[in-house]
Amino acid sequence: MKHFFLLLTTGLILFSCQPKPQENETTTHPFDWEAATVYFMLTDRFNNGDPTNDLNFSRDRETAVLRGFEGGDLQGIIQKIESGYFDQLGVNALWFTPVVEQIHGATDEGTGLTYGYHGYWAKDWTTIDPNFGTMEDLKNLVEIAHKHQIRVVLDAVLNHTGPVTEQDAAWPSDWVRLSPVCDFKNYTGTTACTLVANLPDIITESDEPVMLPASLVEKWTAEGRLSQEIEELEAFFKRTGYARSPKAYIVKWLTDYVFELGIDGFRVDTAKHASEDAWTMLYEQSSWALSQWRAAHPEQTLGETPFYMVGEVYGYHPAGGTAYSFGDREVDYYQYGFNAMIHFGFKHEAKKGYEALFSAQNQYLQTTHQGKGLLNYIDSHDDGDAFDKDRTQGKKAANVLLLAPGGAQIYYGDEVNRPLTFTGAVGDAHLRTPMNWDVLNDSLVAENLAHWQKLGQFRRAHLSIGKGVHQMIQEAPYTFSRIYQEDRVVVGLEQPTGAKRIPVQSIWADGITVTDQYSGIAAKVKGGFLEINTPFDTVLLQEN
Question: Which amino acids are annotated catalytic?
Answer without folding.
Answer: 269, 312
